[in-house]
Design brief:
2 domains, TIM Barrel
Amino acid sequence: MSKEAKNSKAKTHKESPVERWLSYRPEIRVVDCTIRDGGLMNNHKFDDSLVKKVYETCVAAGVDYMEIGYKASRKGIVAGEHGAWKYSREEDIRRIVGENDSKLKLCVMADAERCDYKEDIPPKKDSVVDMIRVATYIYQIPTAIEMLKDARDKGYETTVNLMAASTIPDRELGEGLELLAGSEAGAIYVVDSFGALYSEQVHRLVKKYLHYCKAAGKEVGVHMHNNLQLAFANTIDGIVLGANMLDATLAGLGRGAGNCPLELLIGFLHNPKYNLRPVIDCVQHHIEPMRQKLGWGYDLPYMLTGLLNQHPRTAIKYNAAEEKEDIVKFYDMVTE
């Protein structure tokens, strides 16, 4: 075959289904949220040994980012109410990671209107943290934009999580995305805060986010909750459509019904830079032993709040009670 014919064949070659599923997309970045999202189940009171083990696991597994905690306001702190990872002070982070002499990048989350970001987030040159993730509801976007600019001016990478996407009317969502697309965020996340999204909704939202993000040179991310046992499936849908920032947690540890399990995601991605073995080891020896006490994961109360597109706070309260009411009574309460 002539050189010209080979070039012509290469130009007309279409990727087969087998090639598509056995290959990988190098642009994808995996963010482990175990300590930050999981901290919502125990008031952020993880032992240093557990946080260090999660850090070491992320390094060994080739995970791209580890979200080590929140940057919440320290005004009015009640002693003992919250653990260190509610605030993620620099000295606490360095106690775990030292200078972080690894390829793993570290990030923290700062909620709009709940963080004294100008004082509590130091310049990047003074921090081992690499990225600031701002979480915002639609009505808080002006504050979020200011926080993103502050973080970028200080030298950090930035992303923004637009919370409760399943509750935002389409016109308002478009207006919010237009504002965020003009912000200093490097990526905008589709966040299924209530674990209420189905595949067709994920498709609509990711495509809508991509419309605004790609024109602005930004990535789209996905952060899914598991109330309907769809966190992994919805994350896959996001990947197929073009989302490149992917959130997950070890064994799905996270608020309420939990998140997309990191071990499922790593196993799916096919990228040889990711190593599943240390993830499985950490899940077996360090994460699963906490399940009975912390009680995250799919169950009927979380399923019901997901089906109804409600915040899981009522299900969390139900599950925390020493004597639980009949589940049918819970159903009647949340549907009345």
